[in-house]
Specification:
about 290 residues, alpha/beta, Glycerol-3-phosphate (1)-acyltransferase, acyltransferase activity, membrane, cell membrane, LipA_acyltrans, cell inner membrane
Amino acid sequence: MLQKIGPPVVTVIFKLLGALPLTLLQTLGRFFGWIAWCVPGSYKESAARNLRQAYPDYSPLMLRAAMINVGQLMFEMTFWWTRRDEPALDALLQCDNWQQFDEALALEKGVILLSPHLGCFELLGPIFGARYPATVLFRPPRMAWLTAWIIEMRSRRQLTMAPANQSGVRTLVKTLLRGRIIGILPDQVPPDGEGVWAPFFGKPAYTMTLVQRLQKLSGATIFVLAAERNAVGKGYLLHYKRLEASLPDDAQSAATIINQEMEGMINKMPEQYLWGYNRYRTPKTKATKQLPGN
């Protein structure tokens, strides 16, 4: 029953909310984020714990700002998933040098975009997909009907969604070998056997090896980037860094570099990171035949 009524119901909710002006959605998000900061909750506790790990002297105001930004992200998601006016969406993001990406693509070895769960990462797919053919890796939810719905909602004319499984990885490889763009959130905890332990803000975190393997296979250029959320109604600012050197062959060394780059980007806007994500958890072993959730 849920498989039949779930997609249309969620679609209607997203489209109704997504039809609202972005300024209003951000304002609503700030309000609900503030509510989440005021009341006890497991996400808030996890956010405080991880924030303390990264910034031992953090203030309660920093946690409040982080919770407010989570609220904004949740409401912004409806906007970015449902809008299809590419020129209008593109105008909301300020980037000082798109030529960097053009030059990397001209090498015809592909481009790997890495973004932590930071700022409004949900806009990166639609924005880059409006400019270039691209494929974005995503972690499928446990409910099968949601996977199909997410793919339908997030896909664009030039943007393909690839689930984080063997089929999705093959899609990423094909995309890179065609000299195109792929996008990955490398601060997700990978399944057991597909990562190594590497420090993240001074604590071991199970980190994917996929990025290193994909670059070694294709010779792709790697960019670390994030879309910083400006004041309400003021759009977003794209921060980016091109990694000039290839990742080392040693998986743990490569993972350490990636985590360091993630830390550097997060340090630019720490209040906009999803601190409530359980970055330090231990993945379940393959013997359980279960994949870790988001």
